[in-house]
Design goal:
Elements (H helix, E strand, L loop, with lengths): L1 E2 L3 H30 L7 H8 L4 H25 L2 E4 L3 E6 L2 E7 L3 E7 L2 E6 L4 E6 L4 H10 L17
Antiparallel strand pairs: 1-2, 2-3, 3-4, 5-6, 6-7
C-alpha cells in the first residue's frame, strides 16, 4: 500500500488544523474590528458583527469552536487522502477505508508525477487517476516499478534487479 498518513502524519495534520482553528478563534474578531475601522473595506456590517463577539464566554468559546472546526476539517483531510494498493494485476484506489476504484493493470499505459500529484494514464492517454498521494516520491515510484507498471519521468529499477 502506498499513500495515506502514518500515525505521526495524522496527528500532525489534525493537530495543525486544530491549532489553526484556535488561533483563528482568538485573532478573527481582532482582525474584524481593525478592518471594520477602515472605510474602504467592504462588508462593514458583517465585520462589525464579528468584532462585537466579546462576551466573556465567547472569549474562550471562539477558540474552542475554532479547535472543534479545525479537528473536523483535519479528520476530513486525513480520511479523504487516497491510499493505493498496487498489485501486479490491478491498482485499487481507497478513500475512507473503502475501495473507490479498481484500475486493471492492462489498461495502464504509464505512471508519472505531475507536480505533487501521481498520475496514472491509459494507453490512449486518458487520465485514470490523478491525485496527491502521501509518501515520498521515491517510495511511490518504487511501488509501481516493483509491480511492473511503466514508470515515466525518472530512473527506476525493479527491486528484483530488472529494469
Amino acid at each position: 500500500m502506498v499513500g495515506g498518513f502514518d500515525r505521526g502524519g495524522r496527528v500532525f495534520v489534525v493537530g495543525g488544523f486544530a491549532v489553526a482553528g484556535i488561533v483563528a478563534g482568538f485573532v478573527l474578531p481582532l482582525l474584524a474590528r481593525w478592518a471594520a475601522g477602515l472605510p474602504w473595506v467592504p462588508f462593514q456590517g458583517p465585520l462589525e458583527l464579528i468584532s462585537s463577539f466579546d462576551a466573556t464566554w465567547l472569549v474562550w468559546g471562539r477558540p474552542l469552536i475554532g479547535a472543534l472546526l479545525g479537528l473536523a476539517f483535519g479528520l476530513y483531510v486525513v480520511a479523504g487522502t487516497p491510499v493505493l494498493e498496487i498489485r501486479d494485476d490491478a491498482l485499487e484506489v481507497r478513500r475512507n477505508g473503502q475501495v473507490q476504484r479498481v484500475i486493471p493493470r492492462e489498461t495502464v499505459g504509464g505512471v508519472h508525477l505531475r507536480g505533487s500529484k501521481t498520475v496514472v494514464e491509459a494507453k490512449e492517454g486518458r487520465v485514470l487517476f490523478e491525485d496527491d498521494v502521501e509518501g515520498g516520491k521515491d517510495a511511490i515510484r518504487q511501488a509501481f516499478v516493483d509491480h511492473g507498471y511503466p514508470w515515466e519521468g525518472g530512473p527506476a529499477t525493479r527491486s528484483d534487479g530488472s529494469s
